[in-house]
Every structure is written in structure tokens, then in C-alpha cells.
Amino acid sequence: MENEKFQKLVLEQLQTLTQGQARLESGLEKLELRVENEVINKLEGLYLYREVQNEKLDKIEQKLTDVEVDTDYLVLRVKRLEMMAK
After folding, report:
1. What is the pLDDT of residues 8-36, one digit of tens each?
2. How far is CA 42 from CA 17, 45, 51, in A?
3. Strand locations in 19-82, DSSP E?
4. Angstrom distances, CA of residue 24 to CA of 16, 30, 31, 36, 59
5. Which residues of 37-74 are buried (b: 16+ CB within 10 A; e: fewer)?
């Protein structure tokens, strides 16, 4: 009789452990999905931010090129005027 009680107790504990493991696995799957979604959203945000920064840099580079062209023109003009003044 003791043996049967022990077996019953072991089976009950095994069932409890199995149910607990199933709950943990379910919770883990939900957590994985949540983390994946959060990571994907953050990566998309970083990508968009990088695109905006690249556009700003492109505009700054274009403005710098324009300033360089204007400076070159003015340097040539000053040189011509200095030559004419001599």
C-alpha cells in the first residue's frame, strides 16, 4: 500500500511539474515574440533616423560645395582685379 501511495504522489508531482513547464514554455514564447517585435521596431527607428541624418549630411555637403565654388570664383575675381590695378 505504501508503494502505491508513493507512486501516486510521484505521478501527481510529475503532472504538476509538467504543467508548470508548459506554462513556462508558453510564457517564454510570448516573451520572445514581444522582444522580437520591440527589437524590430527599434531597428526600424534606427534605420529611419540614419536615413534622415544621411539626407542632412547630403544637404550640408552640397552647401559646402556651393561655398567652395563661390570662393573659387571670388578668388579668381580678386586676382583679376589685382592684376588690373597694377
Report:
1. 999 999 999 999 999 999 999 999 999 99
2. 37, 5, 14
3. none
4. 12, 10, 10, 18, 52
5. eeeeeeeeeeeeeeeeeeeeeeeeeeeeeeeeeeeeee
Cell reading at 84: 588690373
- Three cell numbers at 59? 544637404
The model's pLDDT over 31-78, given as tens digits with 9 standing for 90+, comes to 999 999 999 999 999 999 999 999 999 999 999 999 999 999 999 999
Residue 4 grid cell? 502505491
